[in-house]
Write a structure and sequence with these properties.
Layout (H helix, E strand, L loop, with lengths): L2 E2 L12 E2 L4 E5 L14 E6 L11 H7 E2 L2 E10 L5 E6 L3 E4 L2 E4 H12 L9 E8 L3 E8 L5 H10 L10 E4 L13 H9 L1
Parallel strand pairs: 11-12
Antiparallel strand pairs: 1-2, 3-4, 4-6, 5-6, 6-7, 8-9, 10-11
Length: about 200
């Protein structure tokens, strides 16, 4: 357990305050320097008795996710001035474009509304990022439905979606990749977007 919202002291949209002896901080996704002020988006790091001791027989991964006693969760979020945590999603579900963190899930929500996919058990498209020499990354829509990139851009701009949030490329696939857990296979999704 990391944090808790109590019935008499909760704030909608947060996951509460760190529980017991747990400590949390938000760090820059690139430099891993902790932000001193609340309200800045970054990666959640944790320290305390509820953090596990490390991955079994994987010292390289342990060196990657543990530093100075802090555990790099891979969750993007921020703190409020009152110390509550807000979790926005996983770092792998964001792209850093021109210095701005663009949430893939939020773009997919707009697409779901735009194309009327709300009643489907799974939406037939997913957003991912690929390397872009000018902006760092650019968005790609991997889709089971035929969607033209130019038409997609026009429709999203009409809805007031910022240009950075508009996929520049659409890749048509027979099926989106899923893991046995039912979650998107982000590695295969990235391969499809690049391929």
């Amino acid at each position: 357990m990391v944090s808790i919202n109590l019935p008499h002291d909760n704030v909608w949209g947060t996951v509460g305050v760190p529980f017991g002896d747990m400590r949390a901080r938000i760090v820059d996704a690139t430099t891993r320097v902790a932000f001193k002020e609340p309200g800045r988006m970054g990666v959640l790091e944790l320290k305390g008795p509820n953090v596990f001791g490390g991955y079994l027989n994987d010292p390289a991964l342990n060196r990657e996710v543990f530093h100075d006693g802090w555990f790099w969760t891979g969750d993007l979020g921020m703190t409020t001035p009152s110390g509550r945590l807000i979790i926005e999603g996983r770092l792998r579900r964001f792209s850093k474009i021109g210095g701005e963190m663009v949430p893939h899930g939020a773009v997919e929500e707009v697409l779901t509304e735009l194309y009327g996919w709300g009643d489907l058990p799974r939406i037939p498209a997913a957003v991912t990022g690929i390397t872009d020499e000018k902006k760092g990354e650019s968005l790609v829509l991997v889709s089971q439905e035929k969607i033209e990139a130019a038409e997609l851009g026009r429709r999203l701009r009409e809805k007031g979606v910022p240009n950075l949030w508009i996929p520049k490329k659409v890749v048509l696939v027979d099926a989106l990749p899923y893991l046995p857990s039912g979650k998107l296979d982000l590695q295969k999704l990235g391969e499809m977007a690049r391929g």
